[in-house]
Amino acid sequence: MKPIKFSVEVKKARSLGLPIVALESTIITHGMPYPKNLETAKIVEKTVRDNGATPATIAVIKGSIHIGLESKQLETLSQVKTAEKLSRSDLVTCLAKRQTGSTTVAATMILANHVQIKVFATGGIGGAHRGSEIDFDISADLYELSKTPVNVVCAGPKAILDIPKTLEILETLGVPVITYGQNNLPGFWSKSLNIKSPSRMNSTTQIAEAFKIRQELGLSGGQLIANPIPSSKEIPWSEISKVVAQSISESQELKIKGKDVTPFLLNRIFEITNGKSLEANKALIINNARLAAKIAINLMES
Ligand code: PSU
Ligand code: MN
After folding, report:
1. What value, to the nearest 5°, has the Cα angle with vertex 70 and ends 68 and 75?
2. What is the span of the domain harbouring residue 221?
3. What's the mean pLDDT when you consider all of the chain?
4. Is the separation of the CB atoms in 145 and 110 below 8 Å?
5. pTM more than 0.90
6. How many domains does the chain contain in total?
7. Is 158 assigned a catalytic role?
C-alpha cells in the first residue's frame, strides 16, 4: 500500500502537535456545483486557519489517501466528474483499484481517526431517509459514529431525512447528539426544528470534556455536535419543508436510489430555491468549521 500523503501544512501541524480539523470532500464533488464548491472549500479551510487550527481536507486521489489537499489538488477535485462517493463499504475497493474518490462523513471519519485527527467539520450528516422502513436507505454515517472516535460537527441531520428515525437510530447506537447553544435540534438549512435535541451544551470546553470522558471509559464511537446555522442565513422550516417534500416526490418519480438520492435532492433544492439553499449550505459549513477549530483546540488542553 502506498503511504498516506499529507499536505505541507498538515505535515507541519502534525510535527508541531498543533490542532487539526478534518474536512470531507463529498460535499465538494457531489454536494455543490462548480465553482461554488471550490469557493466554499477554500473559505472553510481559511475559517479553520483563522480560528487557530489547521484544515485537512481528505480525499482519495488515484489510489492514494490524501490528508490535506494542496490548492491545485483542491481545484482539480472540484471539477472532476468521475470521483466516486466513498463510504465505509467502498473506500478500500477504490484504493485497491487506484481510483479517485471523495470521502463522505463515514469515510472521512475512518481516515481522520487513522491519522489521529479527532475533530471533523461537515455540513450535515446522512441518516434514515423517509421511507427507509421500506427501502432500508439508512446512511453508513450513523454506524460510523458508533464505531469511530471522532467529533463530527454538523448543522443537524440533513432535513431531507426522517429526523425522528435518525435520532432513534443514533440513540440505539449510543451516539451522543449534542446541540450547541439551544434546546431544539437544528435542521441543516433551518436554525431550529420542532424537535428537542437529546442533549445541549453551551461551551466547547464541555464538548471536549465529554469526549475525553468517553475515551477514559473506553466507550467506542464518537460524538455528533449539531451547530445551528446563523439566524441571518437560515431558511425557516416552514419555507424549506415544502421544497424538500417536492424534491423527494420528484426523486421517487424518477426512481433515484441509493447513494444518488442525497446529491439529487441537494441539487433540486438548490434549483427550486434559486440558489438560496446553497448560500445557506455555505454559511452553515463555515459556521461549523469555526466551532470545530475551537473544539480541536480544547481537546489539546489537558
Ligand atoms: N453535508 C453537506 N453536503 C453533502 C454532505 C454533507 O452539506 O453533500 C454529504 C456527506 O458526505 C454525507 C453524505 O456523508 O452527504 C450523505 O450521503 P448518504 O445520505 O448517501 O449517506
Ligand atoms: Mn443512502
Report:
1. 110
2. 5-301
3. 97
4. no
5. yes
6. 1
7. yes
